[in-house]
C-alpha cells in the first residue's frame, strides 16, 4: 500500500553534525530543549518516521515534524533558539559616546572628577544609565593610583639582573632579598581596644601614645620564604654589617650568596666593601633608584604590617621587639615563599606605556607649562 502524506526530504547528517548532535544530546549542561531537539534529529536521521520518533521520545508528532523541517532548512543553527525581541533601547550610541568622552576628556565645574550624579545632570540621563555605561567600559573616575619612574641610568640592566635572579637563580646558590624597616613605632592606644561584635568590627581610639622606635633588618630567602632578621635601635653601617653576618650564618660555608638591596648609602659604605673582601662568595645586586617594588622583601614587610603591626599595641620598645620576633618565628614555622611571575620584558613594556603617556601629556601642554 502506498504511503500517505507529503514525501519527506531525506535527512542525512555529516560526520561533524552527527558528532555535534550527539554531544548536545548527552551533555549535562545542555539546555533540555536543545538536548531533545538533538535526539529528534538523530532519531529521524536513523530512518524512523515522525510517528515512531514521537512515541519513543514522548513528544507530539507535530513537534518532531517542526524540528525535522528546521534542521533540513537551517541545519544546526535551526535547533538553537533565536534571540527573543525585547524592549527597544532607551540609550542611543550617541549618548553612550557623550558619557565616555565627557568622562575621559572633561571635568565638572568645581570638582576634580565626575560623579554619577554630576554626569547625569550634565547629560540629561539617569544616574543608573551613567553607572551602567561606566561599568560596561570599565571607567572609574573616583579611582586614582600613583607611579614614580626611575631616573637610574642603569635601570634596564638592573631590572634584567634582579628579575633574572628571581626567575632563574643560580644552581645551589642562596638568594636573599634584604632591606630595613626603620622607625617602627611602639604604639599604645589611649583607651582599651573594643573587640569585634556581631554587625560591627573592632574599634580603636584614633589617638595613641608613642613609646619609642626600633629598626628591623630582614632578609627573605628566595625559594623557601624563610626570614632572617635583626632588631636594632639604629640603622647605621655597623648594624648593617652585623645583619650581614647573621644572614651568612644561615648558609653553608663558601656557598654562593646573592643579596638584593636598595641604594641607601649604608649599603655602599667602606665598611661594607671591606666585609665583601672577606666574603668573596657574596655578591650584591642593587635595585634601581625609586624601584623598591622590585625587592620581594617589601611584599613581606607589607604582610608584617597588615597582619601584625597595624592593629597591635605595645607599651615599650622591648614589648614591640618581642612581638615582632615571635611573629617572625611563627612565619618561619610555616614560611610561604613569594613567586615572581613577570619577565623583564613584560616590566619594561609596561613602563614604556607610562613613558609614552607622559610624552603625550607634555606635548599637549602650553609652551610655558611644566609637568
Secondary-structure blueprint of this entry?
Blueprint: H1 15-26, H2 32-45, H3 50-57, H4 61-74, H5 93-105, H6 116-123, H7 127-136, H8 155-167, E1 174-189, E2 208-221, E3 227-232, H9 237-248, E4 257-261, H10 270-278, E5 282-286, H11 297-307, H12 317-333, H13 344-363
Describe the structure.
The protein is of the alpha/beta class and 371 residues long. It has 3 domains: 15-79; 93-136; 169-193 and 204-340, Ribonuclease H-like superfamily/Ribonuclease H (Nucleotidyltransferase, domain 5, 2-Layer Sandwich), CATH 3.30.420. It contains 13 helices and 5 strands. A 5-stranded mixed β-sheet has the order 3-2-1-4-5, sandwiched between helices. Helix 6 crosses helix 7 (127-136). The radius of gyration is 34 Å and the shape is elongated. Mean pLDDT is 84; it is low at 365-371.
Amino acid at each position: 500500500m502506498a504511503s500517505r502524506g507529503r514525501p519527506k526530504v531525506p535527512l542525512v547528517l555529516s560526520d561533524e553534525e552527527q558528532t555535534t548532535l550527539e554531544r548536545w544530546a548527552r551533555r549535562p549542561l545542555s539546555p533540555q530543549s536543545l538536548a531533545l531537539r538533538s535526539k529528534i534529529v538523530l532519531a529521524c536521521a536513523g530512518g524512523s518516521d515522525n510517528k515512531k520518533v514521537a512515541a519513543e521520545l514522548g513528544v507530539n508528532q507535530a513537534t518532531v515534524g517542526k524540528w525535522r523541517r528546521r534542521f533540513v532548512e537551517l541545519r544546526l543553527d535551526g535547533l538553537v533558539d533565536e534571540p527573543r525581541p525585547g524592549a527597544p533601547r532607551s540609550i542611543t550610541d550617541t549618548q553612550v559616546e557623550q558619557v565616555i568622552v565627557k568622562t575621559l576628556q572633561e571635568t565638572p565645574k568645581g570638582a576634580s572628577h565626575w560623579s554619577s550624579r554630576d554626569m547625569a545632570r550634565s547629560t540629561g540621563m539617569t544616574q543608573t544609565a551613567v553607572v551602567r555605561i561606566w561599568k560596561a567600559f570599565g571607567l572609574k573616575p573616583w579611582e586614582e593610583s600613583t607611579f614614580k619612574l626611575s631616573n637610574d641610568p642603569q635601570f634596564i640592566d638592573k631590572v634584567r639582573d634582579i628579575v633574572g635572579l628571581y626567575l632563574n637563580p643560580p644552581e645551589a646558590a642562596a638568594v636573599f632579598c634584604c632591606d630595613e624597616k626603620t622607625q617602627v613605632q611602639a604604639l599604645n592606644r589611649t583607651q582599651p581596644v573594643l573587640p569585634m561584635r556581631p554587625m560591627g568590627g573592632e574599634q580603636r581610639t584614633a589617638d595613641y601614645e608613642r613609646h619609642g622606635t626600633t629598626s628591623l633588618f630582614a632578609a627573605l630567602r628566595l625559594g623557601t620564604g624563610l626570614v632572617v632578621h635583626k632588631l636594632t635601635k639604629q640603622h647605621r653601617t655597623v648594624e648593617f654589617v652585623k645583619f650581614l653576618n647573621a644572614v651568612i650564618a644561615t648558609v653553608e660555608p663558601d656557598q654562593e650568596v646573592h643579596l638584593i638591596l636598595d641604594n641607601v648609602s649604608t649599603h655602599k659604605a667602606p665598611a661594607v666593601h671591606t666585609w665583601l673582601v672577606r666574603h668573596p662568595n657574596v655578591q650584591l645586586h642593587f635595585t634601581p633608584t625609586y624601584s623598591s617594588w622590585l625587592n620581594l622583601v617589601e611584599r613581606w614587610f607589607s604582610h608584617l604590617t597588615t597582619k601584625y603591626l597595624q592593629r597591635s599595641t605595645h607599651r615599650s620598645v622591648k614589648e614591640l621587639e618581642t612581638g615582632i620576633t615571635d611573629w617572625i618565628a611563627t612565619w618561619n614555622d610555616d614560611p610561604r615563599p613569594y613567586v615572581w611571575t613577570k619577565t623583564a620584558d613584560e616590566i619594561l613594556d609596561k613602563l614604556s606605556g607610562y613613558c609614552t603617556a607622559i610624552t603625550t601629556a607634555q606635548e599637549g601642554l602650553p609652551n610655558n607649562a611644566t609637568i
